[in-house]
Amino acid sequence: MPNWELKNCCKHEQVVFLSTIGVFTVVILLLWRTFLLAPFKLITVFLHEASHAIACKLTCGDVEGIQVHANEGGVTQTRGGVYWLILPAGYLGSSFWGMAMILASTNLVTARIAAGCLGLALFVVLFVAKNWTLRGLCIGFIFFLAIIWILQEKTTVRILRYVILFIGVMNSLFSVYDIYDDLISRRVNSSDAEKFAEVCPCPCNGVAWGVIWGMISFIFLSASMYLGLVILS
Predict the structure, then answer these.
(1) Residues 179 and 218: beta-carbon distance below 8 Å
(2) Which residues pair with 74 in a beta bridge?
(3) Which H or E run contains 58?
(4) Beta carbons within 8 Å of 190's beta carbon, 6+ residues apart
(5) CB 38: neighbour CB atoms within 10 A?
(6) Which of 47, 152, 177, 194 is the most interior residue, by most CB within 10 Å?
(7) What's the CA gap between 75 and 49, in Å, rounded?
(8) In the chain, count of helices (H) and strands (E)?
(9) Calculated CA dihedral for residues 139, 142, 147, 148, nearest 10 degrees
(10) What is the pLDDT of residues 83-142, one digit of tens each?
(11) Distance, CA of 21 to CA of 47 (rounded, Å)
(12) At 156, phi and psi to the nearest 5?
């Protein structure tokens, strides 16, 4: 039975899980504006745009192309589909994938599955990528994941779980920051939230939707830590 009440918390694996998230968070914040995090930020942008594409396909639309730019921006070109479901899928989908990877890191089998799924997604997007930044990102991260996988299976450098956890934490933090930066502090008129406010009948502007999406993203992050503790209990 799952230990939903977290009785007798925290065991060694739970302490390691929380401590690693804490260390990764500090490292990410310290290196936030350095080139070292640029590839991981772009992976978050990739997952944001991929979430738009998935929502489009699930609502019977067509994905005409995806772009990820070096300035941490991105565009997904779609035709058809349910627009008011496609728009929020970027930010919320990115937060969801961050939560999924944090949870996947609690077990080696699920970490392998997460790495495989991410590698497959990068490979598929290669065929709809519309710029070389995204193509380079896909190829580079496929090789990166392959190297980490080989190290995990063939050597004593077993860091696959930690790499998946780092990507998950990075994705969750960047999603919350991106929502604040794009939708609340600067209020970009072309943002997903502003467009969503135009098509949604609710009396909310783009900033209000940014706050709502930010809260949901923070809930995803908190839920990932709680559920991770439950899994490890």
Answers:
(1) no
(2) 68
(3) helix 38-58
(4) none
(5) 14
(6) 47
(7) 7
(8) 8, 2
(9) 140
(10) 889 988 988 999 999 999 999 999 999 999 999 999 999 999 998 888 999 999 999 999
(11) 20
(12) -90, 0
Joined together, the tokens standing for residue 144 give: 């990166």
Dig out the tokens for 170 from the structure. Answer: 């990075």
Tokens of 60: 């019977």
Structure tokens at 151: 């190290």
Determine the pLDDT at residue 112.
Answer: 96
Closest residue by Cα to residue 16 from 161, 214, 122: 161
- Taking only the tens place, the pLDDT of each residue in 189-220 is 567 777 888 887 777 777 788 788 888 888 99
**Which residues pair with residue 184 across a beta bridge?**
none
Which residue type, as a one-letter code, is found at position 185? S
**Residue that has been written with the tokens 């969801």 in this structure:** 96
Sign, Cα dihedral of 130, 132, 134, 138: positive
DSSP 3-state of 144: helix
Handedness of CA 82, 83, 84, 87 (dihedral sign): positive
In percent, the amount of the chain with pLDDT more than 70 equals 96
The arithmetic mean of pLDDT across residues 9-37, rounded, is: 91
> What confidence tens digit (pLDDT) does each residue in 141-155 have?
999 999 999 999 998
